Amino acid sequence: MEQDLVVGAATVDEAGSGPPPITPQPTIGPVAPAAYGGRVFVKVCGVMTPADAAAAAAAGVDAIGLNVVPTSRRCIDVTTARAILAVVPDHVMTVGVFRDHTADQVITLTGELGLDAAQLHGDEPPETTAAVAREVGTVIKVVAAGSPAIGRVHEHGADIVIVDAPTPGGGVPFDWDVVGDLATRCRLVLAGGLRPDTVAEAIRRVRPWGVDVASGVEDRHGRKDRDAMVRFVSTAQAAANRHTA
Predict the structure, then answer these.
(1) d(Cα 191, Cα 186) in Å, to the nearest integer?
(2) Could you state, in order of their start, the residue ranges of all structural domains in the chain?
(3) Does the annotation mark 75 as catalytic?
(4) What is the DSSP string of the chain?
(5) Pick from 51-60, 127-136, 235-244: least confident
(6) Is the pLDDT at 5 greater than 80, yes or no?
(7) pLDDT for 70-122, tens place per residue?
(8) CB contact at 8 A, 216 and 25
(9) Backbone angles phi and psi of 30, in degrees to 5
(10) Which one of 45, 52, 116, 212 is the catalytic residue?
(11) 32 Ramachandran zone, left/alpha/beta (phi>0; psi -120 to 50)
């Protein structure tokens, strides 16, 4: 008999598979956008249906985020999570999005689902990040724009750092200047209100290793828009090519 695991609002009872993890960095060091195979890393977060996952993969994304934070409007249940993972190609990284879960909860859920990465989106201390990193292939730490946590993010030793808007998932951009030179010191993924018509300028100004989008590629019903994802990916890659040539 299969044994279920409950973490927050997520129940999991089977493992999946995915692409090889990004090789962890022993310390945060200079990483240019070209480090990801000469391209910019593109993640679509808050995927809620298998159809949206398949469309994101077809659009050329490098990763999708599955939200298991109970308070999020994009939180998914176990049935949906399994269905999504069943249609995701091996080359697309699957990321579990957590917020203030314990390290044990993150490790157990990530392992049971077979996710490739864990994204820590709360106020987790470096000790939690380190504990997760010992068991999970890729760890992503999120910090809010303008937060003092940006200056301490190196303490987490995460493989990837996301700078998001103070209110994540709200579709409101922030002043990109607050990122400073962080893109020269880590694998920086820029998030927060990006859209197909703003991502090129964001890449030009910040020069991130990657970009992350949720509401910027959604329709008025909150579902991912296939055409918007295609435009976002193609625009981001074109901008990255211009600035890494």
Answers:
(1) 15
(2) 31-244
(3) no
(4) ----EEETTEEE------PPPPPPPSS-----GGGBTTB-EEEE----SHHHHHHHHHHT-SEEEEE--TTSTT---HHHHHHHHHHS-TTSEEEEEESS--HHHHHHHHHHHT-SEEEE-S---HHHHHHHHTTSSEEEEEEETT-GGGGGGGGG--SEEEEE-SSTTS-----GGGGTTGGGTS-EEE-SS--TTTHHHHHHHH--SEEEESGGGB-TTSPBPHHHHHHHHHHHHHHHHHHH-
(5) 235-244
(6) no
(7) 999 999 988 899 999 999 999 999 999 999 999 999 999 999 999 999 999 99
(8) no
(9) -60, 125
(10) 45
(11) beta
**pLDDT at res. 242:** 83
pLDDT at 26 over 50: no
- Under CATH, domain 31-244 is a member of which superfamily? Aldolase class I (3.20.20.70)
Q: Which of 159, 164, 212, 225 is catalytic?
A: 164
- Token pair belonging to 81: 């999570």
For residue 11, the model assigns a pLDDT of 37
pLDDT for 32 beyond 60: no
- 28, pLDDT greater than 50: no
62/194 Cα distance (integer angstroms):
16
Our answer to whether residue 186 is catalytic in this structure is no
